[in-house]
Amino acid sequence: TMKNAVPQAASLLLEKLLLLVHVRALPAASGGEPPPPSTAAPGYYDTSCFKRGDLLEVPRTLFIHFGIYLGENRVAHLMPDILPAITDDRRQIEQVVTNKRLILGVITKTASIRVDTVEDFAYGGSILVNHMDRLFEDQVLSSEEAARRAEKLVGATAYSLLWNNCEHFVTYCRYGAPVSFQTDKFCETVKMIIRDQRSVLASVLVGLASIVCLGLAPSTTLPTIFIPFFLWMAG
Q1: Both 216 and 107 in a single domain?
Q2: Is residue 99 part of a domain?
Q3: Taking a C-beta distance cutoff of 8 angstroms, is the pair 154, 63 a contact?
Q4: Do both 152 and 229 map to the same domain?
Q5: 79-83, 136-140, 180-184, 227-231: range with highest mean pLDDT
Q6: Which CATH number characterizes residue 77's domain?
Q7: What is the number of domains present in the chain?
Q8: Quick one: 168 and 206 in the same domain?
């Protein structure tokens, strides 16, 4: 049960964090209003240093967004999006993803691998190029193979914070294996938190048992026992 609870807890927390990150990072639009323009004007980024097949990273507040550069100021990247599941109108789908579309995509676990300009992909953030290559060494595929893989996958896709997010997409394209280091790290953090909580609760129970069995003075023992418990609750 605990093994099943850990991925579920991680998924729930990741969903909340992802929504917070994207709600701040992406444009807001409502109803039939047209999406707002990009925060960065065309030419804001020097694309001359990008090569077709490069892996681009944009650090956000809590997470990193990933994409594959296709050349000519185009980036393929995976984003939660409800629209491809309800319409085939490419003109609507190709518009900048709004908060409403993203949130509904996360909830329904639907997404699209889309092609945007570098400006729309980065949305004003700084860009790192091939920063993950050092982790894969000899596993880096040719630049053309990476770009072709990305282009082949463009379109609607299932979405999962743990198993199919933007990092899984780019690592599959450039390294041949879909992995997500930031998701793995977050899951490990959740496991540590759960273990810590269990140890605190165990210490509380031991302390209460000592009061009952040994007749220790509650006035001196209870504060000591419940300090870690209250700290855990406050955290």
Answers
A1: no
A2: yes
A3: no
A4: no
A5: 79-83
A6: 3.90.1720.10
A7: 2
A8: no
Residue 4: inside a domain: no
Angle at 204 between CA 203 and CA 208, to 5 degrees: 115
pTM given for the model: 0.68
pLDDT for the residue 28: 44
Place of tokens 């793995």: 184
Domain that holds residue 113: 54-179
Instruction: For residues 132 and 126, give the distance between their C-alpha atoms in angstroms, rounded to a whole number.
Output: 16
Q: Active-site residue numbers?
A: 166
